[in-house]
C-alpha cells in the first residue's frame, strides 16, 4: 500500500524490525518536540486513562500501537523505549484536507470511504492498542460511526483504546491539544489553537458510540476532558 503524505510510520525497540510490523516507509520520520506554531499553553498533569492503557501493555513486548494525534519525538521515544512500534497519523490534518470547513461533506459516502483509505487502511486485527486522544470529537455522526467501526476492526481482541472527549455543555471552541507522554501516568498537554467540536458527548453518548466494544471506563479531569478507556 502506498501511504499518503500525512501518514507517518515510526518504529523502534530492540527487537522490532522497521516495516515488518506495519506498512510504513522504510526510513523513520525525524520529528522534533519543540512547540509548533499556534501553540499557546503547556500543562503537565496526571492521567488515569494513560496509566490504565500502559497497565494493559505492561510486561508485553513488540506490540504495534497506533496514535492519531500526529508524531512527536517524546511519544515516539517513550513507546519505542518500551520495545514497541508506534504508527503515527495526524488525523486532524487529513480531516481538514479531505473535508475542509464543509461539515456537510462528512456525510458523503464517497468522501468517508476516501478518508478511511487515507487514515485506517489496515488489515483486521493489525494493532494492539490505539491512542486516539481527542480527535473523535471533531467528526460528524456519519463519519464518526464509520471511523469507530473501522477502529474496532483494525485492533486485536482484548486491546485497549484511549480517547478524550471535551465535557463542555455547549458547542463552542475548545482547546486543541498535542498530547505528549511524560511517564506511564503523566501527560503534557500543549494547546495549539481552538476548534468547535462536532457534537457534545455525555457518558451515555460515549457508551452508545462504543456499543460494539467489550467495555468503556471513564475518568474526568480538571481540564474538562473526559478520559475514556475502551476495551475491545
Q: For the residues shown, what is the average pLDDT?
A: 83
Overall number of strands: 10
Just give the CATH class of the domain at 7-17 and 60-171 and 199-231.
Alpha Beta
What sort of overall outline do the alpha carbons produce when their principal axes are compared? Answer: globular
Number of helices: 6
Low-confidence segments, given as residue ranges, are 1-39
Strand order of the largest sheet: 1-4-3-5-6-10-9
Q: CATH superfamily of the domain at 7-17 and 60-171 and 199-231, please?
A: Vaccinia Virus protein VP39
- Helix share, percent: 25-40%
What structural class results from the helix and strand content?
alpha/beta
Strand content: 25-35%
Q: What is the rounded Rg?
A: 16 Å
Q: Helices and strands, in N-to-C order?
A: EEHEHEHHEHEEEHEE
Under CATH, the topology of the domain at 7-17 and 60-171 and 199-231 can be stated as Rossmann fold
N- to C-terminal distance = 26 Å
The CATH architecture classification of the domain at 7-17 and 60-171 and 199-231 is 3-Layer(aba) Sandwich
Largest sheet: number of strands, sense, barrel closure = 7 strands, mixed
Short descriptors:
232 residues; alpha/beta; Rossmann fold; seven-stranded mixed beta sheet; 26% helix; globular; disordered N terminus
Write up this protein.
It is a single chain. By secondary structure, the protein is an alpha/beta fold. The protein has a domain at 7-17 and 60-171 and 199-231: 3-Layer(aba) Sandwich (Rossmann fold), CATH 3.40.50. Helix content is 26%, strand content 31%. It is built from six helices and ten strands, in the order ββαβαβααβαβββαββ. The protein has helices spanning 48-57, 73-81, 91-99, 109-119, 141-154, 203-209, and strands spanning 7-10, 41-46, 64-67, 85-89, 127-133, 155-166, 174-183, 186-195, 215-220, 225-231. α2 (73-81) links the parallel β3 and β4 (85-89). The protein starts with 6 loop residues before the first strand and ends with a strand. The model is unreliable at 1-39 (pLDDT under 50).
Amino acid at each position: 500500500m502506498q501511504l499518503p503524505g500525512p501518514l507517518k510510520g515510526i518504529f523502534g525497540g530492540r527487537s522490532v524490525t522497521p516495516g515488518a510490523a506495519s506498512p510504513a516507509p522504510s526510513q523513520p520520520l525525524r520529528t522534533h518536540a519543540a512547540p509548533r506554531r499556534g501553540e499557546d499553553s503547556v500543562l503537565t498533569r496526571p492521567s488515569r486513562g494513560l496509566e490504565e492503557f500502559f497497565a494493559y501493555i505492561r510486561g508485553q513486548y513488540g506490540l504495534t500501537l497506533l496514535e492519531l494525534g500526529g508524531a512527536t519525538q517524546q511519544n515516539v521515544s517513550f513507546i519505542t523505549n518500551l520495545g514497541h512500534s508506534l504508527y503515527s497519523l495526524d488525523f486532524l490534518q487529513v480531516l481538514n484536507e479531505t473535508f475542509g470547513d464543509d461539515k456537510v461533506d462528512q456525510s458523503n459516502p464517497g468522501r468517508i470511504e476516501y478518508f478511511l483509505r487515507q487514515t485506517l487502511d489496515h488489515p483486521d486485527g493489525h494493532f494492539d492498542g490505539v491512542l486516539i486522544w481527542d480527535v473523535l470529537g471533531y467528526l460528524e455522526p456519519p463519519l464518526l460511526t464509520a471511523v469507530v467501526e473501522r477502529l474496532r476492526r483494525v485492533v486485536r481482541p482484548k486491546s485497549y483504546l484511549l480517547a478524550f472527549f471535551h465535557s463542555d455543555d455547549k458547542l463552542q471552541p475548545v482547546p486543541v491539544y498535542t498530547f505528549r507522554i511524560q511517564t506511564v501516568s503523566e501527560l503534557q498537554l500543549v494547546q495549539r489553537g481552538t476548534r468547535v467540536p462536532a457534537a457534545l458527548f455525555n457518558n451515555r453518548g460515549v457508551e452508545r458510540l462504543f456499543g460494539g466494544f467489550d467495555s468503556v471506563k471513564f475518568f474526568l479531569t480538571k481540564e474538562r476532558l473526559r478520559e475514556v478507556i475502551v476495551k475491545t
